[in-house]
Write a structure and sequence with these properties.
alpha+beta, GTP Cyclohydrolase I, domain 2, two-stranded antiparallel sheet, 2 helices, 19% helix, 38% strand
Length: 129
Protein backbone atom coordinates (compact mmCIF):
# COMPACT_ATOMS: atom_id res chain seq x y z
CA UNK A 1 0.00 0.00 0.00
CA UNK A 2 1.43 3.38 -0.96
CA UNK A 3 -0.11 5.23 1.98
CA UNK A 4 -0.75 4.43 5.60
CA UNK A 5 -2.48 6.15 8.51
CA UNK A 6 -0.45 8.94 10.06
CA UNK A 7 -0.75 11.31 13.03
CA UNK A 8 1.32 13.92 11.14
CA UNK A 9 -0.66 16.84 9.75
CA UNK A 10 1.01 18.75 6.94
CA UNK A 11 0.12 22.40 6.47
CA UNK A 12 0.91 24.98 3.79
CA UNK A 13 1.05 28.78 3.74
CA UNK A 14 -2.30 30.53 3.47
CA UNK A 15 -2.34 32.00 -0.06
CA UNK A 16 -4.47 35.00 1.06
CA UNK A 17 -3.61 35.77 4.72
CA UNK A 18 -5.00 39.32 4.55
CA UNK A 19 -8.57 38.11 3.99
CA UNK A 20 -11.02 36.25 6.20
CA UNK A 21 -12.37 33.40 4.08
CA UNK A 22 -14.07 30.19 5.06
CA UNK A 23 -12.78 26.73 4.21
CA UNK A 24 -15.52 24.14 4.57
CA UNK A 25 -14.98 20.37 4.45
CA UNK A 26 -17.25 17.37 4.79
CA UNK A 27 -15.62 14.04 5.65
CA UNK A 28 -18.22 11.23 5.55
CA UNK A 29 -15.92 8.25 6.18
CA UNK A 30 -14.62 8.79 9.72
CA UNK A 31 -14.38 5.68 11.90
CA UNK A 32 -13.15 4.91 15.37
CA UNK A 33 -14.02 2.19 17.90
CA UNK A 34 -16.30 2.28 20.94
CA UNK A 35 -14.01 2.02 23.98
CA UNK A 36 -16.62 -0.02 25.89
CA UNK A 37 -17.69 -2.58 23.28
CA UNK A 38 -14.98 -2.50 20.62
CA UNK A 39 -17.64 -2.04 17.95
CA UNK A 40 -16.97 0.43 15.14
CA UNK A 41 -18.38 3.94 15.32
CA UNK A 42 -19.03 5.83 12.09
CA UNK A 43 -19.33 9.58 11.67
CA UNK A 44 -19.41 12.40 9.19
CA UNK A 45 -17.10 15.21 10.21
CA UNK A 46 -17.86 18.79 9.19
CA UNK A 47 -14.92 21.18 9.43
CA UNK A 48 -15.25 24.94 8.98
CA UNK A 49 -12.23 27.15 9.53
CA UNK A 50 -10.92 30.60 8.74
CA UNK A 51 -7.18 30.25 8.26
CA UNK A 52 -4.62 32.69 9.59
CA UNK A 53 -1.16 31.81 8.29
CA UNK A 54 -1.67 28.11 7.40
CA UNK A 55 -4.11 25.73 5.71
CA UNK A 56 -4.30 21.97 6.17
CA UNK A 57 -3.12 19.73 3.33
CA UNK A 58 -5.99 17.42 2.32
CA UNK A 59 -4.14 14.13 1.87
CA UNK A 60 -2.43 14.60 5.24
CA UNK A 61 -5.84 15.27 6.81
CA UNK A 62 -7.23 12.10 5.24
CA UNK A 63 -4.33 10.02 6.60
CA UNK A 64 -4.67 11.66 10.03
CA UNK A 65 -8.37 10.82 10.23
CA UNK A 66 -7.62 7.26 9.05
CA UNK A 67 -5.31 6.84 12.04
CA UNK A 68 -8.36 6.74 14.35
CA UNK A 69 -9.86 3.66 12.66
CA UNK A 70 -8.72 1.23 15.39
CA UNK A 71 -8.63 3.70 18.29
CA UNK A 72 -11.08 3.27 21.14
CA UNK A 73 -12.47 6.69 21.94
CA UNK A 74 -15.64 8.30 23.22
CA UNK A 75 -17.30 10.60 20.68
CA UNK A 76 -16.65 13.67 22.84
CA UNK A 77 -12.98 12.82 23.33
CA UNK A 78 -12.15 12.06 19.70
CA UNK A 79 -13.93 15.18 18.40
CA UNK A 80 -12.05 17.42 20.82
CA UNK A 81 -8.73 15.68 20.10
CA UNK A 82 -9.10 16.28 16.37
CA UNK A 83 -10.14 19.92 16.93
CA UNK A 84 -7.21 20.47 19.32
CA UNK A 85 -4.72 18.99 16.85
CA UNK A 86 -6.05 21.13 14.00
CA UNK A 87 -5.89 24.26 16.17
CA UNK A 88 -2.36 23.41 17.27
CA UNK A 89 -1.11 22.91 13.70
CA UNK A 90 -3.10 25.66 11.97
CA UNK A 91 -3.57 28.35 14.64
CA UNK A 92 -6.72 29.39 12.73
CA UNK A 93 -8.68 32.58 13.32
CA UNK A 94 -11.76 30.41 13.75
CA UNK A 95 -12.41 26.67 13.70
CA UNK A 96 -15.55 24.61 14.18
CA UNK A 97 -15.57 20.82 14.02
CA UNK A 98 -18.88 18.98 14.14
CA UNK A 99 -18.86 15.19 14.41
CA UNK A 100 -22.20 13.65 13.45
CA UNK A 101 -22.06 10.05 14.67
CA UNK A 102 -24.42 7.48 13.20
CA UNK A 103 -27.02 5.77 15.34
CA UNK A 104 -25.87 3.54 18.18
CA UNK A 105 -28.50 1.93 20.43
CA UNK A 106 -31.18 4.24 19.04
CA UNK A 107 -29.15 7.39 19.81
CA UNK A 108 -27.52 9.78 17.35
CA UNK A 109 -24.72 11.90 18.77
CA UNK A 110 -23.44 15.24 17.44
CA UNK A 111 -20.40 16.78 19.11
CA UNK A 112 -19.32 20.33 18.25
CA UNK A 113 -15.96 21.85 19.20
CA UNK A 114 -15.10 25.49 18.45
CA UNK A 115 -12.05 27.72 18.67
CA UNK A 116 -11.66 31.48 18.21
CA UNK A 117 -8.28 33.17 18.04
CA UNK A 118 -7.99 35.69 20.91
CA UNK A 119 -9.01 39.13 19.67
CA UNK A 120 -10.56 37.85 16.43
CA UNK A 121 -14.13 38.82 15.71
CA UNK A 122 -16.02 37.88 12.57
CA UNK A 123 -16.90 40.64 10.15
CA UNK A 124 -20.48 41.89 10.21
CA UNK A 125 -22.75 39.86 7.91
CA UNK A 126 -23.77 41.38 4.60
CA UNK A 127 -27.47 41.30 3.78
CA UNK A 128 -28.35 41.72 0.13
CA UNK A 129 -31.69 43.02 -1.13
Amino acid sequence: MSTAPSRELEVFANPKPGRDYLIRMRMPEFTCVCPKTGQPDFATLYLDYIPDTHCVELKALKLYLWSFREVGAFHEAVTNEIADTLCEKLAPRYLRLRAEFYVRGGIYTDVVAEHRQPGWTPPAPVHLG
